[in-house]
Amino acid sequence: MRRIPAFQRQPGPPHSLEKMTDLVAVWDVALSDGVHKIEFEHGTTSGKRVVYVDGKEEIRKEWMFKLVGKETFCVGAAKTKATINIDAISGFAYEYTLEIDGKSLKKYMENRSKTTNTWVLHLDGEDFRVVLEKDTMDVWCNGKKMETAGEFVDDGTETHFSIGNHDCYIKAVSSGKRKEGIIHTLIVDNREIAETS
Question: What pTM does this model have?
């Protein structure tokens, strides 16, 4: 049997194989470009902090002697600011909260439901997630900002775009009620698509 000298031996597994040993929190965050998975590892004995966004390591800190604090990073195509807060709740128990754009995840998602519309549809054997940002009228489909053309029509506006060879538009009409505001409807190949809550 031939021995391999220590200096020629391969090192242990890379970080990706040993990841998630101290996983303490996972969040799914719906942004215009898609739903992003944020995972956080916190080694309370080693002082390790690791943040993964969609499986990709964004932050790695070893030997952090202060076990509480925050980690800030960006998520998605629009580089949305996210912060994980680490707070001690008692003894060696910790609470982990996620903030998006300076708001708690719950508040951020409540606000997003007011500022965006989302539709999920199935076309040509594929799933598509279409998001309208009401403040900018930007349209996103499966993580890509779509090229659009706006058009004024008798009862409102239409924002036209294509998914593959399917003609799509988002129709915006007044509800006639001040509290409801404008109603946005996605039309694909002349049929209305139900909004996803």
Answer: 0.77
